[in-house]
Amino acid sequence: MDYTTHPELLEVQAPHRELLDQVLDKWSLRVLDELCGQPMRFNELRRAIPAVGQKSLTTTLRRLERNGMIERVVLETRPVAVEYRVAPIGDTLNILVDGLLRWTTEVLPHVEQARERFDTANDLL
Length: 125
Prior knowledge:
Layout: H1 14-23, H2 26-37, E1 40-41, H3 42-48, H4 54-66, E2 70-75, E3 81-86, H5 88-91, H6 93-123
Antiparallel strand pairs: 1-3, 2-3
């Protein structure tokens, strides 16, 4: 679809903001990054992301699963285990997130300079 002839497709409405908030938050990005590498169990994710608490990780996994970004798979083992893996929709984010991370790496020095100029100018007031 051509966004120049259909500018309404680029409007950021409440559902768009909600989805972006839920997918691009701090823990969701980390979880998706880990799961893009390989399926993992809950405790493997906790070890891979030591700063996340159990409650935050549980909430993040449930939200990502609800949005179709990851899948929760019950493994037929003894004892029964659960594994999380990236779903096809979540996998489409991989290229976009990599692009955003490259962008932040490229512009961060310029952003830091702008912040310093701003802070210096506003300290004088």
